[in-house]
Amino acid sequence: MGLQLAAAVEALHDLGLRQEPSLIGHVDQDIVLGLQGDAHIDHHDAVGPVDHPVRAAGQDFALETLALEPPAQDRSNPATSLGPDTEIQHSVKGYIQLEGHQGAGSQVRHGALQESGCIERVTYALFGGRQAIGEITMVQLKFPVGRPGPSVQDVLSQDVNPAPAVMLEESPLDLGTEDVTSERYFSKAWHDREVEKVWRKTWQLACRVEEIPDVGDHVVYEIVHDSLIVVRTGPDEIRAYVNSCLHRGTLLRTQGGCVKQFRCPFHGWTWSLQGKLTDLPGAWDFPQVEGKDYSLPEARVGVWGGFVFVNFDQDCEPLESYLEILPEHFKAFALEDRYKAAHVAKIMPCNWKLAMEAFIESYHVPSAHPQVLAYYGDQNTQYDVWPGVRHVNRMISVQGVPSPSMSDVSDETVIKHMRRDMPFYDGKPIEVGPGETPRAKLAERARQKIGRSTGNDLSTLSDTESLDLIEYLLFPNMVPWGGQSLPVCYRFRPYGDNPEQSVMEIMFLFAKAPDGSHPAPAEIRLLGPDEPWATARELGSAAIVADQDTENLMRIQKGLRASSRPTVVLAQYQESRIRHYHQTLDAYMAAED
């Protein structure tokens, strides 16, 4: 008889291996693995590889409790059991399949997961009496020994309002431990190659759609030497023109605004919003122009999540495929239903990559930001790098729980420190009753406050979206956050042609009203090298964190120059997002023209 593994996989996924599976069902002469508890079990006809992710959370769960038994009314079927005795620690994610019965088996489908050193293939035999009828192969992801707990998944599993499915994924790929070369942070030659290989070849965030709502509205997007006019040319059309007069190169626009045409201020050459040359003063003196196409050159344009992206390479891959898993993950966060409520940029004393790295790991938090440890899960931050995904990675840091480095932190201390820093705190007392947790109460308060301020009903919003740092990276330089209470997006760019200075931008994206209305998008505020982030009071406590990092970044940039080592060392897990984007960067830098 066949074993319908799809049912088993569905049940394991729903239950998370937190209860003891011990039931067997019987459908159409097939044994179907079941589970005690509230798990929903479906019957599937197909036998063989089941391309379905499995997640098992919890520590010290012994698989010897998993037993297969035939139904009482069918004594003719041999009892079945699962072995060997094995423990699953932390989590499992991979693919499961049956081999060895009725021709159902085939090669185990691990795909790119086989490339990870964090992975152990575990095979369990299925026995009918003394006869082996098949086996289950699972892919186990092992975290580095000694990783502090509780894990993010442990915390989320206890939340009052459950997390969306994308938050329950874990993908701790082992990318190795190789050092990263230091020259990429200060070498002018490396910087020049980056311009050609990265900035002129990748999709980059240019603006928000609400910044250019009407025809003729435009912004100027600049990256190193290149400049684009990103303009709305129709109700459903946005174009990006090279910001240079085709006569003698004058910038057509130095800032955003709204125009009916683009006119060069030097000699008056003029182009329509469609990029066509419409006025050539002294045309009689330009016989070489007559009858030729002098339309403004264009870059590629794409829109996702309310963001407008540009790519200088006309032969680039579509934005839709470049974004990889990002659109699916952000369905829960709906960034297109937000508007830019604050936008602050600062000239930073370091390379753009150094600036970004300080904001995509939590390893530095105990030393650099000790004020947050009472409510921030730093050492147990979850870092996700997905197999085969080049441009996107993620980290999740839980809030409303103390750092694993802290002991004996009272509920009152957690709430006191978090309400000091959180924008949703409304000044009213927060009391934790019997059976309640600071995290649950803080999440409830966040939902109430954000809901009132936006006019949206957030009563069913998950605790993690209400509180946590849910941060993604889109290569090369965009860092959008999920969730509601921390609606942040970062962007990092070189400052002019200097590899040792950069521009970091912090944007707050607030939810629109239920009818789609919203205030005018915030104008960008530019801070000079000597102006602290705290000058921008609209950033609140985020400015304190950014100032702490800025001071360290200046030291890092100078220290790299002084170092006798040609490389930097990265943690295997806690800095895996940094290693991942450097591996992607190296691939772009090595690509043939």
List the helices and strands and how they pair.
Elements: H1 5-15, E1 23-27, E2 30-34, E3 58-62, E4 67-68, E5 80-83, E6 87-90, E7 97-99, E8 119-128, E9 131-141, H2 152-157, E10 180-181, H3 188-199, E11 204-208, E12 217-223, E13 226-234, E14 237-242, E15 257-258, E16 261-263, E17 270-272, E18 277-279, E19 298-304, E20 307-311, H4 319-322, H5 326-329, E21 338-348, H6 352-357, H7 365-368, E22 382-384, E23 392-397, H8 411-421, H9 438-454, H10 463-467, E24 469-474, E25 478-480, E26 488-495, E27 498-511, E28 525-527, H11 541-562, E29 567-568, H12 576-590
Parallel strand pairs: 21-28
Antiparallel strand pairs: 1-2, 3-6, 4-5, 5-8, 7-9, 8-9, 10-29, 11-20, 12-13, 12-15, 13-14, 14-19, 16-17, 17-18, 19-20, 21-27, 22-23, 23-24, 25-26, 26-27
Helix pairs in contact: 3-12
* Overall radius of gyration: 28 Å
The computed structural class is alpha+beta
Largest sheet descriptor: 7 strands, antiparallel
Overall pLDDT score:
80
Extract low-pLDDT stretches.
1-141
Largest beta sheet: what is the strand line-up? Answer: 11-20-19-14-13-12-15
Fraction in helix = 10-25%
| Terminal residue distance | 57 Å
Number of helices: 12
Q: Key features?
A:
593 residues, alpha+beta, Rieske Iron-sulfur Protein, seven-stranded antiparallel sheet, five-stranded antiparallel sheet, 12 helices, 29 strands, disordered N terminus
